[in-house]
Amino acid sequence: MSIKFEKISKYADSDLPLPQRGTAASAGYDFVVAEDTIIPPYNFFDMKMRDNANLDGRENDYWALAKPYSLDEMASLTKEFKSKVTLVPTGIKCYMPKDTYLELTVRSSTPLKHWLILANGQGIIDSDYVDNSANEGEIFFQLINLSPFAIELKRGDKIGQGIFHHYLTTDNDNADGEREGGFGSTS
Fold first, then answer.
1. What is the pTM of this model?
2. Residues 8, 93, 154, 149, Cα dihedral to 10°
3. Which residues of 22-31 are buried (b: 16+ CB within 10 A; e: fewer)?
4. How many CA atoms lie within 13 A of 159 on its CB side?
5. What's the CATH fold of domain 4-41+84-166?
6. How far apart are alpha carbons 141 and 150 in whole angstroms?
7. If DSSP states are collapsed to H, E and C, what string results for 28-79?
């Protein structure tokens, strides 16, 4: 199987560019923003959750160090207050061989100039993510805004890059599951 980018059906007839490398020696394919997107400042969500959460006995433990939140409790709070990091749509999906993944990173100047970082450090797009039923395999960048102000990304802004990698599996690997959803469905 070859490696190729395509637009998802929502953008099939748009002038949205496919990711491309900036120079012949560039490792990464530059992605652009598909739709205007506002990235709220990180402390907006922090304050929203602190001000509204049922602290359940944590009132005097500002950082919840004595009674930390479990992963399930944190997921519940995130859902209840809609306080998740911003998913920036690219309108792009990617076909690649089974032993390949696409690593997503922000452009090297993005944190320095714009205070935006990738929430998961680096994104991993598996080869079976494409054409899933939940979102057609659209690639998103999870961004956190470290500045004190909301930042608006405009359609066409270069926001990140993708680099292809091959991976190996162990001799005793027996993974046989199939993807049943879109973003975050392998968790």
1. 0.85
2. 130
3. eeeeeebbbb
4. 32
5. Deoxyuridine 5'-Triphosphate Nucleotidohydrolase; Chain A (2.70.40)
6. 17
7. CEEEECCCCEEECEHHHHHHHHHHHCCCCCCCCCCCCCCCCCCHHHHHHHHH
- Ordered by start, the domain boundaries in the chain are 4-41+84-166, 48-80
Return the bridge partners of 158, or none. 32
Structure tokens at 187: 């968790």
Strands (E) in the chain, as ranges, are: 4-7, 29-32, 37-39, 86-89, 92-95, 100-106, 116-118, 123-126, 140-145, 151-153, 158-166
The encoded tokens of residue 60 equal 């005097």
Report the distance separating Cα 143 and Cα 141, nearest Å.
6
Span 11-25, mean pLDDT?
96
pLDDT tens digits, one per residue of 108-138:
888 999 999 999 989 999 999 999 888 899 9
3-state secondary structure of 88: strand
What count of other Cβ atoms lies within 10 Å of the Cβ of residue 16? 19
